[in-house]
Amino acid sequence: MDAQKECVFVSEKSKIFPSTRLFFSFLLCLCFVALAIGTSNISQSMVCMVKKPDSNYSCPLAEPEVEAVPCNHPKQFGWSSIQQGLIYSGQNFGSLFMFVTGWQADRLNGKWTIVAAMVFIIVSNALLPVSASVSFALVFFLRFLTGVGDALLSPASSSMITRWFPPKERPSALGIVTGGRQIGTLIILPVGGWLCGSDGSKFLGGWPAIFYLSSVVAAAVLVIWVVFSADKPSKHLCISHNEEAYITRKIEEENIGKRKQRKSTPWRAILTSKQVWVAVAALVCHEFPLVIMLQFLPKFFSDVLGLSNTVNGLVSALPMGILFLSKCLSSSLASYLTANGYMRKTQSCKIFNFIASLGLGICIAATPLFGALQQSVWAIIILCLANAFAGLHTPGVQTALVQLAPAFSGVITGIAFTVAACFSIFNKLLISQILTTGSKQEWTIVFEISAFVAILPVFFFSLWGSAERTEWASNRVSIPKDADQKSNDSDSSTSSTIQAFAKYSMFLSHDLTISA
């Protein structure tokens, strides 16, 4: 087998479509779909789980301890605003483990790390409906476990992207992979809205079915991931020799090195790097306003616009669909511009991030101006436009984070999202404290605070941001020139493509022991 690989001719390019690495990006995308469904489900279900002060249900009996509940109506809970905030932020508390998981992500087997992440998501969602009737603390703990799954998945996927994709393909890969968050949210919000409605409550039990469905989806993704994924290209069953050699050659130019041969993590250099902390701060400012989009948007539509549960779910999914399209299109555009020499990496990241932060801040600030039922269409349009701008952060700061030090991308991603999780916890608790009655005035305060934070990277990331590989990111002292910028890649042969498809069709009869 080894002798056969040595005789394979390596072309200058292995095109990304069709390719095994593109297929692998879709596998990672599926994992983020499962994660998003398992995390975003709380935003729609919370509207149905919590009793409203102005509930139409009344008790004609004199005894105050007796409660009249309609038939087939799922149980609701009298959680306070601070308790709701803690449940919303439980996932972020679990995500704090990303600092530890990110530290080890570049050393651990990414495939089995993601398997563990899926298990956490499956268990935490499957047990939540039963636990909600027992204790609020149990619900918080299960949401905490969901966050632990996120803490395992995000750094592992970032580390695997640097192993599977050459530098100039990474913006596109990030767009596809992280777009799974929006796809998952796009799926669960309308489905959750229907399950919370009268029809869903009658046939499927209402909001508990949202969490059971989330577990089933994660379990299906887990099976697909175990069968078809691999930690790195050389371990994948279906990759062609030409594509594997191409990926290896391109990544070797970055001096990433093998995990076992890699030097210890340069903590001092990372923690004192201006480029790292500027990117971390920009990520925080990007994630801060998205808390509204991902967690509180159904509540805004219910409190201010008065939409029904079914319509709420459908409308809440629209901004997520726009965000997904924006991420994919802008990431592909960024890859094209940098690969063809129209922009340098840092220039591309700064421009995309500038447009993203400015547009997001303006749109969020303008949303409260349309906070009436008669203006609901305009409010939805503005929120969709805000998400279109937010998608440009993917080829912006998120790409910069994985380009600064590809060999330690898991560590840097872990630090970045740990800090972002801390601010998300603060943001969710702050929003829950502000929204005591859910009035338009309270929502205006929430939107204006988020708009102020969103617009900050326009200034500091544009001045000090960077996507160039740092000096301490290499295993060797001398850093060779980026040969990837000079090589003009040509298409791979048709026979390699046919061979790859043949391997996929023969997967079930493939000898696993030989390929390992």
From TrEMBL:
GO cellular component: membrane
SUPFAM superfamilies in alphabetical order: MFS general substrate transporter
Keywords annotated in UniProt: Membrane, Transmembrane, Transmembrane helix
TM helices/strands, residue ranges: 22-42, 207-228, 276-297, 317-339, 351-370, 376-392, 404-426, 446-466
InterPro entries from the UniProt entry: MFS, MFS_dom, MFS_Na/Anion_cotransporter, MFS_trans_sf
Domain Major facilitator superfamily (MFS) profile span(s) in chain numbering: 29-469
UniProt cross-references to Pfam families, sorted A to Z: MFS_1
Gene3D superfamilies linked to this entry: MFS general substrate transporter like domains (1.20.1250.20)
Membrane topology type: Multi-pass membrane protein
Gene Ontology biological process terms in this record: monoatomic anion transport
Location relative to the cell: Membrane
GO MF terms held by the record: transmembrane transporter activity
Identification of the protein by name: Major facilitator superfamily (MFS) profile domain-containing protein
Species the sequence originates in: Caenorhabditis remanei
Phylogenetic classification of the source organism: Eukaryota, Metazoa, Ecdysozoa, Nematoda, Chromadorea
